[in-house]
Amino acid sequence: LRRISIDTDSHKSEILIGENWKEFTNLAKGKQVVILTDENLLHFYGNEFGNIPCISLAPGENSKKLVTIDLIAKRLLELGIDRNGFLIGIGGGVVCDIAGFVASVYMRGIHFGFVSTSLLSQVDASVGGKNGVNSGSVKNILGTFNQPDFVICDQSMLKTLPEEEYLSGLAELIKHGIICDEELFTIIERNTGLIRSRDQDFLTDLVSRSVEIKAAVVREDEKETGKRMILNFGHTFGHAIEAHNGMKHGFAVAAGMIIAADISVEYGILERNERERISNLLEESGLIMPYKITTPRFQELISSDKKKSGDSVNFVLIEKIGKSVVKKIAVPVLIESYKSIYSIS
Ligand SMILES: NC(=O)c1ccc[n+]([C@@H]2O[C@H](COP(=O)([O-])OP(=O)(O)OC[C@H]3O[C@@H](n4cnc5c(N)ncnc54)[C@H](O)[C@@H]3O)[C@@H](O)[C@H]2O)c1
Q1: Which of 10, 63, 213, 308 supports an S-S bond with 57, CB 3.0-4.6 Å?
Q2: pLDDT tens readout for residues 302-320
Q3: Using a 6 Å cutoff on CB, does residue 91 contact ligand 1?
């Protein structure tokens, strides 16, 4: 069991990695606990929820919308939940993002925690205090920064995760190595067998290391005005690919990371052999998928990215594996680099 704390100005939050997920009942003792989950998690783990009231959502991104928040609020009211309530989100990033948002606004805020069940949410979504829902096609546009009291990341739950969801999380894990921790990257490179077999102890080590990286970044910059931007490595092009091709997040980020690495080579700050190491690991991990998107569409989607500032994006480049740097680049300039690297007229 590893404990990592995130103490920000507003809150103290504890992440428990390798903890038994059922421990949440002890951690929320004395409160009126309600579980928020989705139908898949309910299927695998619901018979162990005991008599704790449970609200279950349809799985998937489509549940991340304002009407869901309203429905959950109505259910919480029916259940008689007041400000002594405690909402526990048991699920992947979708459930955690929704749980964090509802708990932040229901009665102006009740306590909440997560049992984080997907690899993506264990290494990324449930750490850092961002929550929210989508509006139309704009992702995560309504939300707050608010830390949960605790996050339990139980790697035994990853056994039931579908393969493509598992790989999608692996991309974020690899990203953390690329931007901050060369050793983490090397450990992943050397142990692809243990990763494939989802070895529980090995995954506890990897998730801990990855959470430590994200936690350190968040402690320094909770509201994403500086350092936290490095977490967006691969996401500028990745989000566009995800939106246009409907590809799973991690696969799109993998494609975006290769483009960002190529741009780093083009800027003369990254050695080509480091770029090859990145693409080899992504390839070997099964994260390289074909996608089709035109350059004007890239430009359009990147220009509408909500993380843009003015006409520019804070683009994350890498100097070597384990070291990243943020550079403000005008969108048309970025698109020109992309065209020149891939010889697109
Ligand atoms: N708040 C943040 O900082 C942050 C960061 C990254 C991503 N996100 C958000 O996270 C979401 C993606 O998260 P995700 O990939 O976990 O998606 P998800 O929550 O939809 O989970 C993926 C699928 O796996 C299933 N699942 C999850 N855990 C399982 C398990 N242990 N066994 C069996 N099935 C399981 C779910 O039911 C779902 O069908 C996106 O909405 C994204 O915006 C948030």
Answers
A1: 63
A2: 998 777 778 899 999 999 9
A3: yes
